[in-house]
Specification:
about 475 residues; alpha+beta; 11-stranded antiparallel beta sheet; 7-stranded antiparallel beta sheet; elongated
Length: about 475
C-alpha cells in the first residue's frame, strides 16, 4: 500500500483523519491533545472535560465543612461526608433537600439534639378573604418561636383589615406596595399615615387601628407580635364585638334608636373590599372632639443612613430612634455574596429572623457541645435563642436581605472578633493556640484591632472556597 500524502490538509482534516486511523490501530502523525481539538474547532471529548466533583459522593473530602449552594448549583444533596454515609433508597423530597443541604449532610461540627429553628411561611395555612389573604408563624408552627409570632398579610387596592386591637403589641415591616394606617392613642389622639416598602409601624397593646391597601397593587407586610402564643384568630374585631352585643345596648351606647343598627354585619368582616380613600387631608376626622395624636407610630427604616461594613449594610431600629417601639427592636441587614454576619450572640432576647431574599447558612451553638446548622431561603423564618452563638453566611450568588427582630427595647449583640481583640493577648493565645504559637501570633495580629465588623467579607474568602471545591 503506497504511503499517504498529508501535505496541504487543514488541522481539522488532519485531526479527523488521524482519529479515524487511530481507531483502526494504524500509526498517525497527529497528537491527540486538547489543543488539537480546540485548533480544529471541535468539542473536547469527555476525557478532557474536567467537571467539578459533586460534594455529595463517597469520594468527596472537605475537612473545613465549606458551604454548598445546592439550590444555585442545582445539586441533589445526599448523606455523604468525608467517606461516611450512603445513598438514599427510599422516598426523597429533592426540592426540600436542596433548600436544606446542611440537614441532609450536616457539618462535622454539628452535634447534639438542638430543637428545630427553621420554618417556611410556605408551610403555613393561608386564610383567603375578599381581596386579601393572611398566614401566620407562631409557637404552634415553630415550637422555638416562644417570644415572637408573625403574620404575613396581603391587601389589594382599597382592601381593609378592619378596625381591631390586640392584647399584644404589633410591629410591622412593609414588604411591598403602599398602606394607610389609622389609630387612636391612649389619650384619644387621632393618627393617620401612608407607608411604603421598608417603612415600619408599631401599635402598643390595646391600641385600636386599621390597615388599608393603597396604590395599584395594594400592599403586603410582615406583622410581628410580642408573644409567640399570639393567634390572628384571637384579635378583637369591631364587627365581631357588635355582632355579639344586644342591639338595645348598642343603641344606648350611641344614643340612637335600635332600628339604626338593624343591618349590622352578623359576623366579623376581617378583610374586605373598601372604598378607595382620598388623601389624608381629605379623610381625616374633623369632629368637635377630634385631636391629633402626640405620638408617632411609624418609622422609615430604609431611609435610615446604613452602617456600612466590609461585607454589607446594617440598619438598626429600636426605642432609641423609634421611641414608641418599647417591646420590639430590629435590624435590617444586607449580606453580600461570600460575606458573613459575623459570629456573635444576643444577651437580651431571642433572635427572630425573616429572610427576604438570598440563601443563607446558619450554625447555632447551644453550649454543652451542642450545635446545629440550618439553611434558609426567601420566606423562611429562623430562631436563635438568646445567648446562643451563631453566624449567618451568604452561600448564594445574590445579597441576603433579612430582618433580625427581638422582643426588646434595644438592639444588643456581642461580637466574637471584638471580644478576642479586647482580651489580653496571653489569655487568648493560651486558650486557643497554646501548642501552636506561630498561628497564635497570626491570629492575634488579625484580631488585636478589636474592630467590630457586623457583616464581614474575608480577605480571601472566595479564593479559599474556590480552591477547596476543587479538592
Amino acid at each position: 500500500m503506497p504511503p499517504r500524502n498529508y501535505t496541504g490538509l487543514s488541522a481539522w482534516q488532519l485531526l479527523v483523519a488521524g482519529l479515524a486511523l487511530s481507531n483502526s490501530g494504524l500509526a498517525v502523525p497527529v497528537e491527540d491533545s486538547p489543543r488539537q481539538y480546540l485548533l480544529a474547532g471541535l468539542d473536547l471529548p469527555p476525557k478532557y472535560s474536567k467537571k467539578p466533583k459533586s460534594p455529595y459522593n463517597p469520594d468527596y473530602r472537605d475537612p473545613y465543612d465549606g458551604a454548598v449552594d445546592a439550590v444555585g448549583e442545582k445539586l441533589d444533596p445526599l448523606p455523604y461526608r468525608n467517606g461516611l454515609g450512603a445513598s438514599v433508597l427510599g422516598p426523597w423530597n429533592r426540592e426540600r433537600s436542596r433548600q436544606s443541604p446542611d440537614l441532609v449532610r450536616p457539618p462535622s461540627t454539628d452535634h447534639g439534639n438542638l430543637k428545630n429553628m427553621r420554618w417556611s411561611f410556605a408551610d403555613s395555612h393561608v386564610r383567603i378573604e375578599e381581596g386579601g389573604w393572611t398566614r401566620q408563624t407562631t409557637v404552634r408552627e415553630l415550637g422555638t418561636s416562644v417570644e415572637l409570632a408573625a403574620v404575613n398579610m396581603r391587601l389589594d387596592q382599597g382592601v381593609i383589615r378592619e378596625l381591631h386591637w390586640h392584647k399584644e403589641a404589633e410591629w410591622a415591616y412593609v414588604l411591598d406596595g403602599q398602606v394607610r394606617v389609622t389609630a387612636i392613642d391612649y389619650e384619644g389622639g387621632n393618627f393617620m399615615d401612608d407607608l411604603k416598602k421598608g417603612d415600619l409601624w408599631y401599635f402598643p397593646s390595646g391600641v385600636p387601628h386599621s390597615l388599608q391597601g393603597l396604590g395599584e397593587n395594594g400592599t403586603e407586610f410582615l406583622l410581628i407580635f410580642d408573644d409567640g402564643n399570639f393567634s390572628e384568630e384571637s384579635t378583637f374585631i369591631l364587627s365581631d364585638w357588635l355582632a355579639h352585643t344586644p342591639k338595645s345596648v348598642i343603641a344606648k351606647n350611641f344614643h340612637l334608636a335600635p332600628e339604626v343598627f338593624a343591618h349590622l354585619p352578623e359576623k366579623e368582616k376581617y378583610i374586605f373590599q373598601g372604598a378607595l380613600p382620598g388623601s389624608i387631608d381629605d379623610e381625616k376626622p374633623t369632629g368637635k372632639g377630634v385631636k391629633k395624636s402626640k405620638y408617632n407610630f411609624v418609622h422609615r427604616m430604609l431611609e435610615q443612613e446604613p452602617h456600612v461594613t466590609s461585607g454589607g449594610e446594617v440598619r438598626i431600629t429600636d426605642s432609641k430612634n423609634f421611641h414608641v417601639s418599647k417591646t420590639v427592636a430590629a435590624a435590617h441587614v444586607l449580606i453580600q455574596p461570600g460575606a458573613l454576619r459575623e459570629m456573635h450572640w444576643h444577651p437580651n432576647a431571642d433572635e427572630w429572623n425573616f429572610f427576604i431574599r438570598g440563601r443563607a447558612r446558619v450554625t447555632i451553638f447551644a453550649s454543652e457541645g451542642s450545635a446545629r446548622t440550618f439553611d434558609y431561603v426567601p420566606g423562611d423564618v429562623g430562631i436563635v435563642p438568646r445567648n446562643m452563638g451563631h453566624f449567618v453566611e451568604n452561600i448564594g450568588d445574590e445579597p441576603i436581605e433579612m430582618l433580625e427582630v427581638f422582643r426588646a427595647d434595644e438592639f444588643r449583640d456581642f461580637s466574637l472578633f471584638q471580644w478576642m481583640g479586647e482580651t489580653p493577648k496571653k489569655m487568648v493565645v493560651d486558650h486557643l493556640f497554646k501548642d501552636d504559637p506561630e498561628n497564635g501570633e497570626i491570629f492575634w495580629n488579625k484580631v488585636k484591632s478589636a474592630e467590630k465588623d457586623e457583616v464581614t467579607l474575608p480577605d480571601s474568602g472566595k479564593d479559599a472556597e474556590s480552591e477547596q471545591r476543587e479538592l
